[in-house]
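User: Sequence in, structure out. Go.
Assistant: Echoing your sequence, followed by the structure tokens.
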Amino acid sequence: MKKKYIFVGLVVAIAGLLAGILIIRNEKDRQSPVDRYMNAQSEEDPKNSVFDEADTATEGAAAENETSNNFTYRDIRYEFLSYEIIEDTDIAAQTKYDGANFYSGELPDPNELEEYIDYDAIKAECPELKEMWETDKYTFEETIEIFNNNIDIVNKHTSMVHFKTRYIFINCQITNTSDKVRDVYMNEIRCILSSPDMEQYVYNDNMCYFDAPVYTQGEDREHSFFCYSLQPGETLDCTVGFAVKDEIENPEYYFGFIDMQLEMDGINPVKGKYVIKLSDLEEAEK
């Protein structure tokens, strides 16, 4: 990733303001990545929603045949067969996973740099910015002025860093159990990182790899790269991959769909019925 530089001016002010607003929203609403994704999907096409309750009629019957590595969700049976973890230091040298099947269209950069802004350090040094980000008392024009007045502090605590990343690839079989054609969006699957004691968890919605893409060009690739239309009774053998940064110490990895009711009740979503534990699967042959 090319390095980014921060310049004093309105563009930076707006970017900083948006970052501040994002912090406020995260602190107030704790909106998860799956919330953001599903809200966007529902606005574009309500029938694509992962939480469409109209398509769950056959789940009860299918549940009798489910084990720790599979489940049926919205008439689609997901069976997770095996997995492989590749460190970012090795991802560019390996040849098993074709760069064309990454969403970016190329193998990931093992030395990728990302902009990191230390908001805690900024708020500790600048009470004015802290108050601006954590309250709603300022107008839009005032927030721009405050940000610009303190741009040197923001620049001081902004850097380009490399975040340690693991690439987790999962071999799957996806079957349409209904009598209708189903559009399956594989990137609706989430990776959940959980602490061993289940007290902490974070979502990861960064699916980056799919080896059965149909839409590979232009806007179709951008919006539908992870989409596959399954005919009634059809089974797709495929591999999906996630780019995962360890945001929790010694995490355990889970994959599946988030039960929002569990989260609203304060329960770790890895306990949901549509989630599998990565360590329950076999490691793929290298």
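User: And one key feature?
Assistant: Residues 10-29 form the longest helix (20 residues).
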